[in-house]
Amino acid sequence: MALAPDHLNRVFFTTGGSEAVESAWKLARQYHRARGEPTRFKAIARNVAYHGTTMGALALTGVESIRSPFEPLTPGAIHVENANRYRCAFCSSGPACTLACADDIERAILREGPETVAAVFLEPVQNAGGCFTPPPGYFERVREICDRHGVLLVSDEVICAFGRLGEMFGCQRVGSTPDMVTMAKGLTSGYAPLGGVMVSDRVAEPFVDPDEMFLHGITFGGHPVSCAAAIANLDVLEGGGPPRTGHGTRGGVPCGTRDARGPADRRRHPWDGLLLRHRAGEGP
After folding, report:
1. What is the pLDDT of residues 205-244, one digit of tens each?
2. In angstroms, rounded to a whole number, what is the distance separating the alpha carbons of residues 83 and 102?
3. What is the dihedral of CA 52, 58, 60, 61, to 10 degrees?
4. Which domains does the chain carry?
5. Deepest in the core among 43, 107, 148, 210, taking most CB within 10 A?
6. Angle at CA of residue 5, ends 235 and 234, nearest 5°
């Protein structure tokens, strides 16, 4: 946990990303129930966002084409506007982002009833749909909204963690202070199946009591072989791997990467850490 943000000091291990998201939603539900708010079961995610394929994670996924064959899905998933400035329903034609996409989360909470909403699931950079980077102030606004209504904030970092955005965790890059972080892929760099949910001290508190426990389990979660692979992988990352090269760029390209793109492509598709994104309004 030494590599994690300071307030995240406990972890529940899974074997992959979908299981991590599923576990985070279940943990959020049981957390609220343990605090005397059993009606909080809903979760909010963004349109076109991908959060996994198990039934709960798929319900959170905002890609209709991969949801519809399996409906009806787990009830309680609510979808809101994403941070795609080019196609924003609120301010795409304006001179600047108004953070209405963040405010759409609050509108959804109020519409559903704050007493029914357990958590908000957001990727630091939304991968599905074109690597949508958050506008300045986005995650600070979302944190305020969640705190105002007693809703947990989950940073889904199955894709963005472990150097993908130039920091060990994507929330550190975008100024987010989540209550939970889901992770998988980069934890072992794919050498062995392992995922997990990192949890803040506040969320862990109801389960520290000897008479309480998180009533959930994964058959091979925290398998020692996978954990050994993760430790070896993190040793490499700590020693100067992608987290450093993701921020360190030469001409917009991560250090150690040869850029074969032309000048026009470099303008339209700048690097963000180790993710290549499309800059809206500058060509196909």
Report:
1. 999 888 889 999 999 999 999 999 999 999 998 886 555 5
2. 8
3. 70
4. 8-223 (3.40.640.10)
5. 43
6. 10
